[in-house]
């Protein structure tokens, strides 16, 4: 039997609450940070979770980013960014999907990046323009 939170095709790592890292973190596994990190975090196709006790001063590049703790830096996620109710982000976000819970702190800008989904984007644009012109009165 495997633990409920384990998945068969993914490996994950944890940076404990007493650990402090200065520099660059990169890798090909999911990462949970509970300690402090200064620098760059690059997990292109993986998920980064910033735990409730974490203090991260870094730019982050990942497939998915979930923030329970504190982040100062820019976040770029291919799939989505979530800022949970006690989470704090001070920086610019670039992602295709965003969720900010009530009670979360966010200061910065948000750019919704749909470049990876061009077919959906062009279909969405057509839907947007059709009702706007059909609803006009002359």
Pick out its properties.
138 residues; mainly beta; eleven-stranded parallel sheet; 1 helix; 52% strand; globular; disordered N terminus; disordered C terminus
What does this structure look like?
The structure is a single chain. By secondary structure, the chain is mainly beta. It has one helix at 118-134, and strands spanning 12-15, 20-26, 30-33, 36-50, 55-67, 70-72, 75-83, 88-90, 93-100, 105-107, 110-112. Strands 1, 2, 3, 4, 5, 6, 7, 8, 9, 10 and 11 form an 11-stranded parallel β-sheet that branches. It starts with 11 loop residues before the first strand and ends with a helix.
Our measurement of the CA-to-CA distance between the termini, rounded to an integer number of angstroms, reads: 68 Å
How many helical stretches? 1
Q: Classify the secondary structure makeup into a structural class.
A: mainly beta
> Shape from CA axes?
globular
Q: How many β-strand stretches?
A: 11
SSE string, helix = H, strand = E?
EEEEEEEEEEEH
Low-confidence stretches: 1-8, 118-138
- Tell me the strand percentage band: over 45%
**Estimated helix fraction:** 10-25%
Q: How large, in whole angstroms, is the Cα Rg?
A: 18 Å
The biggest beta sheet, please?
11 strands, parallel
Instruction: Estimate the mean pLDDT confidence.
Output: 84
Task: Describe, in short, the structure shown.
The chain is mostly beta strands and 138 residues long. The chain has one helix at residues 118-134, and strands at residues 12-15, 20-26, 30-33, 36-50, 55-67, 70-72, 75-83, 88-90, 93-100, 105-107, 110-112.
């Amino acid at each position: 039997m495997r633990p409920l939170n384990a998945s068969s095709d993914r490996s994950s790592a944890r940076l404990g609450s007493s650990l402090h890292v200065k520099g660059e973190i990169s890798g090909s596994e999911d990462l949970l940070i509970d300690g402090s990190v200064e620098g760059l975090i690059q997990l292109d196709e993986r998920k980064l979770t910033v735990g409730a006790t974490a203090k991260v001063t870094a730019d982050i590049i990942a497939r998915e980013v979930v923030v329970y703790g504190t982040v100062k830096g820019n976040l770029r996620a291919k799939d989505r960014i979530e800022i949970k109710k006690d989470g704090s982000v001070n920086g610019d976000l670039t992602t295709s999907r965003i969720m900010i819970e009530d009670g979360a702190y966010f200061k910065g800008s948000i750019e919704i990046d749909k470049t990876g989904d061009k077919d959906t984007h062009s279909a969405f644009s057509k839907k947007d323009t059709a009702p706007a012109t059909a609803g006009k009165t002359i």
